[in-house]
Design brief:
The protein is of the alpha/beta class and about 290 residues long. Helices cover about 45% and strands about 20% of the residues. A hairpin with a 5-residue loop joins strand 2 and strand 3 (about 80).
């Protein structure tokens, strides 16, 4: 074999050997760490998602309450009951949420709501001041006051407005610190009617004053009056007139610190649901007079 043939054979052998070599495996530490980081990140993401899911599935809210029959009160067997309590519990059941209770005075409960120590309050009026620290559900009941009279006097005051009565020397019983709405506020602020207004510190004094002839009638929340009249056995003596004054609507007030807006919306949907199902009217019927 000549030198040229030998050279060509050597070159061909080198080419064949080079083509059959395996791809080099990189041992750069950065690539191995990067792959490991991706696995850890994916694992962490899955754990976070499971944690979020657990929080979503577990719902427990603390409802602050202060005694005010028949809206909120404690039964002899130490259970919290009342119109507001039952309505809120019914809404909470619709979204599988458990309600716990914390009793307190109204102003103290408001402070607890601000800080997030409690989550919600019932029977709340929506105001600009409260909207700073709280969100509100849709109104779940109407707040109004009805004029109550002696049964034998009802016909004498039929189809008259509250203004007409006051202009005819009607003696009106009210409770201190109650907000009766714009119409009654105008009467209270008018000096002409001051001698006709009898204000008492405790609402049940109005019932006594009416029966004793100290006043001609008094204003009261219809659910409170219906409950009190039945409890005291006044059904044949004291009756509701056709005169009603509107004070406003009440909502559930939620702490912005501890309750997300999505939860408030869930309560709104639940309120619509219990109205559609008839549960809402069933609860109201238990407390109406």
């Amino acid at each position: 074999m000549n030198k040229l043939s030998q050279s060509l054979l050597i070159l061909l052998t080198f080419i064949i050997v080079s083509c059959n070599q395996p791809e080099p495996v990189s041992n750069e530490p950065g690539e191995a760490i990067q792959e490991s980081t991706v696995i850890v990140a994916e694992t962490s993401m899955n754990v976070a998602s499971m944690s979020d899911l657990k929080v979503t599935e577990s719902c427990e809210l603390v409802l602050g309450w202060d005694p005010w029959e028949p809206y909120q009160y404690l039964t002899p067997d130490n259970k919290v009951k009342g119109l507001d309590i039952e309505l809120i519990q019914s809404m909470a059941r619709q979204i599988d949420c458990n309600v716990k209770f914390e009793q307190g005075e109204w102003m103290a409960l408001l402070e607890s709501l601000k800080s997030g120590e409690i989550d919600m309050l019932g029977g709340a009026s929506k105001t600009l001041t409260r909207e700073i620290f709280a969100d509100f559900s849709d109104p779940y009941r109407d707040e109004s006051f009805v004029l109550y009279l002696l049964n034998e006097e009802k016909e004498n005051y039929a189809e008259k407005s509250i203004y007409e009565l006051m202009n005819n020397k009607f003696r009106l019983g009210i409770t201190e610190d109650y907000i009766y709405g714009e119409a009654v506020a105008n009467i209270q602020d008018n000096e002409i009617y001051q001698a006709q207004i009898v204000s008492v510190p405790v609402t049940e004094v109005n019932y006594y004053n009416l029966i004793q002839g100290n006043i001609d009638g008094f204003l009261e929340d219809p659910f409170v009056a219906g409950y009190t009249i039945k409890r005291k056995g006044y059904s044949s003596k004291i009756v509701a007139s056709g005169i009603k004054v509107h004070s406003g609507d009440v909502s559930i007030m939620f702490s912005k610190v501890s309750v997300k807006p999505e939860m408030v919306e869930q309560f709104n949907v639940a309120l619509d649901d219990i109205k559609d199902s008839g549960e809402y009217q069933k609860i109201l019927g238990k407390y109406s007079h």
